[in-house]
Design goal:
The structure holds two protein chains of two kinds. Chain A is of the alpha/beta class. Chain A has helices spanning 4-29, 31-34, 60-68, 90-95, 111-121, 167-188, 204-210, 220-230, 251-271, 282-324, 342-364, 374-401; strands at residues 47-53, 77-84, 101-106, 126-129, 134-136, 152-161, 200-203, 234-245. Chain A has a domain at 33-249: Spore Coat Polysaccharide Biosynthesis Protein SpsA, Chain A (Alpha-Beta Complex). Chain B has six helices and four strands; from the N terminus they run H-H-H-E-H-E-H-E-E-H. Chain B has helices at 6-61, 67-95, 100-128, 148-163, 180-188, 211-215, and strands spanning 133-139, 168-174, 196-199, 203-206. Chain B is elongated. Chain B starts with 5 loop residues before the first helix and ends with a helix. The chains are: A alpha/beta, B alpha+beta. At the A-B interface, helix 1, helix 10 and helix 11 of A face helix 1 and helix 4 of B.
């Protein structure tokens, strides 16, 4: 007998399969575009790279060094390091690079305010922003600048985790590889709704027209993407431009970061609600944004259904155990095919597409998938989803109760 | 107006529909296979049982007194077959989505056969001193009102049967099965709750009974 919960799970599974197919079809029909990089303009543009930093003494050296190593004429490069009221040795470390780097210092006002301070003195036609805990590959600029054509106002890059050490970082490393695929598919659909902090580029003239970064927004990188898209500008993605960033090392840090991201999503969706289901904004309006919201709703249904049935099974097992007074361990091996149902078929297929997309992510991310990664991959795919659901709940709770907005790293 | 990838949405929609139809067909095919599996088991069980009955008649007609020894040997293997069929029937009833009615009918046929088997053994106990204990076990499998005591009772009975398969014969009957004979047994033995066990057709153990409580009835 099919219950309401079964029906909701079935619709959720079908929607997941549908969305996966949309991405898969986009990916396959645009295969030639995945790694292709548009030719650089004959006259190279001047580029200003802004590095906002607040207490980043441990990583700022390597970030600035990676920028100095960029394969780009030095006379066309302006690097601006903005110390956002750090209380550690960030400023001193920045000053060691003052021969090649313009160092600004200001009272702590948040990442967006530091970026805006940098934009004010930027002279480049293109403004790039880099987080102070991220590093770029030397060809990152050459692989991105060619995308600035027509209405394209921003270009994103492929982000990987720098030296993943803890298990939490290794799980994120898989997630980030997966996102390389998604970001590219979103760019094909002109649907990128986050221009990530680790390394992204903007047309300075457009940034000035739209008024720079919003200083009181906890996810300014999402807000600027939505603002650009809502005004008809394009956001592109270059897969071969690689950036490495430090990821939260513990569950707690990751939880704080994701709560900020998801709460930022809620805030920005409320602000840009008029884009939802609006064909004026193309695929982003009719598909990408609504699907992201609907999938979160189904994530709750899925987690609710899983938790309920697991709790019920566990409770019944304990009850039976209590009646018996001992646990009889009985293993029986039955024919798995004979014991399958429609749900299993859908889940096997959705998981198959997921594995294929991850495989593509590994390939595009120039990583090798080894057997040793299977446990991490399993956690990243099937357990992480519960963590994500829980963070979403906390984000919604904070938004509903009007909790203080804080920029948690 | 932004670009909308209508072609991609349609292709993805067709693929999803194909997957859904494929899934439903596969689900139907698996359901059909499950029904086929239990029906084959049921048919083979029925043949074995008919054969046993005929052998019984034949030996009785010859005036031979070896009926009990014949039964004690063959009943054990027949009982193992009925157990397998019973557990498959319960498992498949939970999974199947398309052939619930057919499964319910197989379950009824199975129960009738099981009860016939039980009655035959009960008769033999009286006529020639067949010495295994018979347990007619009533349980419920309502997903809305799960009977954890029944699950526990089933585990206890399984464990006991494994220890001494020749000493006890267990016949499981779904309390809620819509069959006249089941209702008649429930009324005759005044069974009001599950789990309940009729021991050797003459006494009823009501509620969960552990191994030591049931052990004293074993001959």
């Amino acid at each position: 007998m099919i219950t309401a919960l079964d029906a909701a799970t079935l619709i959720g599974s079908l929607l997941t399969v549908y969305v996966s197919f949309v991405y898969l079809v986009q990916l396959i029909s645009n295969r030639s575009r995945l790694l292709a990089v548009p030719k650089l303009p004959n006259i190279l543009p001047k580029v200003s790279i802004i590095v906002p930093a607040h207490n980043e003494e441990r990583t700022i050296d390597a970030t600035l060094q990676s920028l100095l190593n960029l394969d780009y004429p030095k006379k066309l490069l302006q690097i601006i390091a903005v110390d956002d009221g750090s209380t550690d040795r960030t400023l001193q470390k920045m000053r060691k690079f003052s021969k090649h780097v313009t160092v600004l210092t200001k009272k702590n006002g948040g990442k967006a305010s530091a970026l805006n301070a940098g934009i004010k003195i930027a002279r480049g036609d293109i403004v790039a922003t880099t987080d102070a805990d991220s590093y770029v590959e030397s060809n990152a600029l050459r692989n991105t600048l060619g995308y600035f054509r027509g209405k394209v106002a921003a270009v994103t890059t492929s982000i990987k985790i720098a030296e993943p050490k803890t298990f939490v970082q290794k799980v994120q490393a898989i997630e980030y590889l997966f996102n390389i695929i998604y970001r590219k598919v979103f760019s094909i659909m002109n649907s990128i709704f986050v221009v990530p902090g680790p390394f992204s580029l903007y047309k300075r003239s457009v940034l000035e027209i739209v008024g720079g970064f919003e200083e009181n927004n906890i996810t300014e990188d999402m807000e600027i993407a939505l603002r650009l898209q809502s005004r008809g500008y394009g956001v592109e993605n270059s897969v071969p431009a690689f950036t490495y960033t430090h990821a939260p090392a513990t569950i707690r840090q990751l939880f704080m970061q994701r709560v900020r991201w998801y709460r930022g999503f809620i805030i920005n969706m409320r602000r840009y609600h008029y884009m939802l289901f609006n064909p004026k904004y193309g695929d982003m309006g009719v598909f990408t944004l609504p699907v992201n919201i609907v999938l979160v709703a189904f994530l709750f249904i899925f987690i609710g259904a899983m938790s309920y049935s697991s709790a019920e099974t566990l409770f019944r097992m304990l009850h039976v155990d209590f009646i018996l007074g001992y646990v009889p361990m009985q293993f029986s091996f039955s024919n798995p095919v004979l014991y399958s149902s429609l749900f299993n078929v859908l889940w096997v297929l959705a998981t198959g597409i997921l594995i294929y997309l991850t495989y593509e992510g590994y390939k595009l991310g120039r990583e090798k998938f080894t057997l040793l990664m299977i446990p991490t991959f399993f956690v990243a795919t099937f357990v992480y989803i519960f963590f994500i659901g829980f963070t979403w709940l906390e984000s919604i709770r904070k938004e509903l109760t009007g909790a203080e907005l804080k920029w948690e790293k | 107006m932004g670009k909308i990838s209508t072609r991609v949405y349609i292709i993805a929609g067709i693929l999803t529909a194909l997957v859904f139809l494929g899934g439903v067909s596969l689900g139907w095919f698996l359901d059909y296979n499950r029904v086929y599996t239990v029906e084959s088991q049921m048919n083979s069980l029925q043949l074995d049982f008919q054969n046993l009955q005929l052998e019984n008649l034949f030996i009785s007609a010859l005036g031979n007194n070896s009926t009990c020894s014949l039964y004690s040997g063959k009943a054990v293997s027949l009982s193992a077959q009925t157990d397998k069929l019973a557990s498959d029937l319960d498992d498949f009833s939970n999974i199947n989505q398309f052939q619930a009615d057919t499964l319910a009918n197989v379950k009824k046929r199975y129960t009738l056969l099981n009860l016939e088997f039980w009655m035959q053994l009960t008769n033999l106990q009286k006529t020639c001193g067949y010495n295994a204990t018979t347990l007619l076990y009533f349980y419920t499998v309502d997903p809305n009102r799960p009977c954890d005591e029944c699950v526990a009772q089933g585990l206890v009975l399984d464990a006991m049967k494994k220890q001494a398969p020749e000493k006890m014969m267990i016949f499981a009957v779904d309390y809620n099965l819509d069959l006249g004979i089941v209702k008649a047994l429930i009324t005759t033995y005044n069974i009001t709750s599950t789990p309940s066990i009729i021991v050797n057709s003459d006494m009823v153990v009501k509620g969960f009974a552990n191994q030591s409580a049931l052990g004293k009835y074993l001959k």
